Recover the amino acids of this structure.
DNA sequence: CAAACATATGAATATTTGTTCATACGATAA
DNA sequence: TTATCGTATGAACAAATATTCATATGTTTG
């Protein structure tokens, strides 16, 4: 009887499968939200961007100073700022020739804080 | 006088730079922690792994059932489980031929929750 | 023991991604 | 306006990564 599932043999009963599939169907976010979530965390998944965020934790800083503080090219920083801005992690404010960047909201702080907590476990 | 900074001309005074560099030096985590942080978030930065985690939010599940629930190859799932396990986001428990996977701790839940909150802003 | 099942893993491939280089854009000052 | 400064951006290249395929490992059953 079990072999009639199309070769599927894993686990004891088919009930478990149906139950799981049902629960997954109910609680799994929509395809677009899953994609956006992954996209968001991808932004945090680069040490250069993380370092930029740590600087912006302390002050509102222009591109040039960010580049200097992190010992990186203005272009490299600018490219990363663009990604951070697109994902609404930071925002830019123009003041003459400068553009000063700062955190967009406090989720950035709490997400990174949670990450640090996880890492600092033994 | 400003030109003597080695061509550096940005921003009004050199004080700002020194101040920023000092603050950054004080508050920036160590190189290894920054790398580990980025590495952790990189793990969340893939929709397949996110989907696996959402399944494990609901139940302890074996590899085969995960593959079935997510309509993916056993091999693809296994590769991703390895990454999740290496970063201590999940843990495996052997029971006969099966290996049941579950969340390692609650940081996983809260990190993803924070991510969803950020996304669900207008 | 051999056979079957559940899972893991190495190699190969296609795609994604971060940095560099050159250049363009926008604002200000002369 | 022209020159200069601060920033943005497109193309190119190298490095990282997710999936597939084939195969190996480990466990149970006959």
């Amino acid at each position: 009887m079990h072999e009639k599932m199309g070769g599927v043999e894993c686990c004891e009963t088919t009930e478990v499968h149906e139950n799981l599939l049902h629960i997954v169907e109910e609680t799994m976010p929509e395809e677009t939200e899953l994609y956006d979530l992954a996209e968001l965390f991808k932004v945090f998944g680069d040490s250069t961007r993380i370092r930029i965020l740590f600087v912006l934790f302390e002050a509102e800083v222009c591109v040039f100073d960010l580049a200097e503080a992190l010992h990186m090219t203005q272009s490299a920083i600018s490219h990363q700022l663009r990604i951070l801005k697109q994902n609404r992690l930071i925002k830019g404010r123009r003041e003459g020739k400068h553009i000063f960047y700062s955190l967009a909201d406090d989720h950035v702080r709490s997400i990174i804080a949670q990450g640090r907590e996880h890492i600092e476990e033994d």
Summary: The beta strands of chain B are 61-62, 90-95, 98-103. Chain B has six helices and three strands. Chain B touches chain A through 56 residues (CB under 8 Å). The mean pLDDT of chain B is 90.
